[in-house]
Design goal:
two-stranded antiparallel sheet; 2% strand; globular; disordered C terminus
Length: 479
């Protein structure tokens, strides 16, 4: 029961991240606040998730992955309850920041699966866990759109609160604590430095289009990010028990999957950002389909089904050819999907097909990334290493969001007195994302090879502790 319980937690995490998207156009009116203030309900979750993912991953490696997983799920649920009880924008933003802790659920769960499952089951379970991010987003958008359209918006958060409480209870009952740990003193200074540096970087990226890319605030944030992260890098290299083992992280078998995660995160995210806008655009634009919020959410439903069905296929490809091949193949499939989107973005069935192909490629890529990380790091660092990998995806997505926004802002025209993006702007966004995915494919092919069909660095099964010891030795020798 551990695999379904952990997968349910991953899906909940993705649902919580996307739950406010259908509400964004109406939230200024509902909360009596400005659109700029409302945008922080997305930004707060992004920032807290980016900061907390590697921090909670490291805490899981040190103090127990199940314990930290339950804490992350509980914070997510608490944030949802707070959203259900208020209409005050400041409280809503704080609650959404609490929900960002759920971003650590996937790397923690992947580490638990590695420690607890026999080798023959690890690949498919990890692939499923990686795919829950897309599955939850694709299933959650139409669900939340339905609730928003036919009920009070607070009902949506009461529903997610109930789901979150169910996720906590299920994980408490079905998941046992992993015996694999890396004891030591938690690097508080490293955690604070990483938090400040990432917050400055992602805040500048996410708000650059609003504040202006050359404004003093944005340039100051970028300068602060460079300074703080440079000091953090120096501190991590000199600390006996660092938050992130940089000596391991810079080795090609770890660094290149992290770089590919950033590129794939950028490449796939344009599809999620643009599809709903494209099909909801009014027909008077000449390309829009004028669909409702619910209908636009349903357009992404096939993508979620594809991610669910093809995650085992990804595991089989990785077992037969190695996760490096699966990762490169996934990035190439994303490129094909964007070629379809560029060829025709006016017919609904072609839009859905193109989005589904991109989701297929994302499934292959995201399922392969944890497998590469698990083969390259000691068992005592799997949660923190996968947390960094998820962080790189987040940075890629944030960068993609800013880049797409910049492209669409510069390619608009007035329709009925309202500025709307042109079809050319959307196609440029697809071309940009497809190009980045192509680069991701090339980088994936340069990742050093590792033994095929083994995620834990051992020849056979055995206890978690025995497999962990062998994995540590294999990772240190082969990295």
């Amino acid at each position: 029961m551990a695999v379904p319980a952990l997968a349910f937690g991953g899906i909940l995490m993705a649902v919580m991240q996307t739950v406010v998207v259908p509400l964004l156009p109406d939230l200024p009116r509902l909360t009596g606040s400005s659109p700029g203030a409302v945008s922080w309900m997305v930004t707060a979750t992004l920032l807290s998730g980016a900061v907390l993912t590697p921090v909670l991953g490291r805490a899981g490696d040190m103090y127990g992955k199940r314990r930290v997983l339950l804490c992350a799920l509980a914070l997510m649920t608490l944030g949802s309850v707070m959203c259900a009880l208020t209409s005050t924008i400041g409280v809503l933003i704080a609650a959404r920041a609490l929900q960002g802790a759920a971003a650590a659920v996937v790397p923690l769960s992947i580490s638990i699966l590695r420690d607890e499952l026999p080798p023959e089951r690890t690949g498919s379970a990890v692939a499923l866990m990686s795919s829950t991010v897309g599955i939850g987003a694709a299933l959650g958008l139409p669900l939340t759109a339905l609730i928003v359209q036919y009920a009070d918006w607070h009902v949506m958060f009461w529903v997610t609160s109930a789901l979150g409480a169910s996720g906590v209870a299920l994980a408490w009952w079905a998941v046992r604590e992993s015996p694999v740990r890396e004891p030591g003193r938690f690097d508080v200074l490293g955690a604070l430095g990483l938090a400040v540096g990432l917050a400055a970087l992602l805040l500048g990226v996410s708000q650059g289009g609003t504040w202006g890319w050359t404004s003093p605030r944005v340039l100051g944030l970028f300068a602060a990010a460079v300074l703080v992260m440079s000091l953090w890098w120096y501190q991590q290299r000199r600390t006996a028990r660092p938050l992130v083992d940089l000596r391991l992280a810079v080795r090609p078998r770890v660094a290149l999957p992290h770089l590919t995660a950033l590129l794939v995160g950028f490449g796939f995210y344009a599809n999620s950002l643009v599809t709903a806008q494209l099909v909801q655009a009014p027909k008077s634009t000449g390309y829009g389909l004028g669909l409702s919020i619910v209908a636009s959410g349903l357009c992404l439903l096939p993508s979620g089904v594809i991610m669910l069905l093809f995650s085992p296929v990804s595991a089989r490809i990785s077992a037969a050819r190695g996760p490096r091949v699966t990762l490169a193949l996934g990035a190439a499939v994303i490129v094909v999907g964007y070629v379809v989107r560029i060829a025709d973005s006016t017919d609904l069935w072609v839009i859905i097909t193109g989005a589904a192909v991109i989701s297929l490629g994302t499934t292959l890529a995201y399922s392969a990334l944890p497998a590469l990380i698990l083969r390259a790091v000691p068992a005592g660092q799997t949660a923190s290493a996968n947390g960094v990998n998820v962080l790189m995806r987040t940075i890629g997505q944030a960068t993609c969001s800013a880049a797409v926004a910049a492209v669409l802002v510069h390619h608009t025209r007035a329709v009925g007195g309202v500025p709307v993006p042109t079809l050319h702007g959307y196609l440029l966004s697809f071309a940009m994302a497809g190009t980045v995915a192509l680069v991701a494919c090339a980088v994936a092919l340069t990742i050093p090879g590792s033994p095929v069909g083994r995620l834990d660095g051992t020849v056979g099964g055995g206890s978690a502790a025995v497999r962990a010891k062998a994995s540590d030795e294999g990772a240190l020798e082969g990295a």
